[in-house]
């Protein structure tokens, strides 16, 4: 697992740092600084929640696809 939270969020959500900054409403330079390890606590919480939400959305999509397969049987 990626230890750098910014890189992990970008990888898991398929975003660039610039796109991540846009989603968060911050300057790209802030995200760049965070990538170097100095992430404010609130930003860290939000980033971790973004990963969890993405995981839940992926699971939900898998369930929907499974249900569709069952209905098609």
UniProtKB/TrEMBL annotation:
Where does the signal sequence lie?
Answer: none
- A UniProt-annotated Pfam family: HTH_3
SMART domains named among the record's database cross-references? HTH_XRE
Q: Where is the HTH cro/C1-type domain?
A: 6-34
Coiled-coil residue windows = none
InterPro entries per the UniProt record, alphabetical: Cro/C1-type_HTH, Lambda_DNA-bd_dom_sf
Question: Which GO terms fall under molecular function for this chain's record?
Answer: DNA binding
**Annotated protein name in UniProt:** Helix-turn-helix
* Native source species: Hydrogenimonas thermophila
């Amino acid at each position: 697992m990626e230890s750098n939270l910014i890189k992990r969020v970008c990888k898991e959500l398929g975003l660039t740092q610039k796109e991540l900054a846009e989603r968060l409403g911050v300057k790209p330079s802030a995200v760049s600084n965070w990538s170097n390890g100095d992430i404010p606590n609130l930003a860290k919480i939000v980033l971790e929640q973004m990963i969890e939400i993405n995981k839940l959305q992926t699971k939900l999509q898998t369930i929907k696809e499974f249900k569709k397969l069952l209905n098609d049987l």
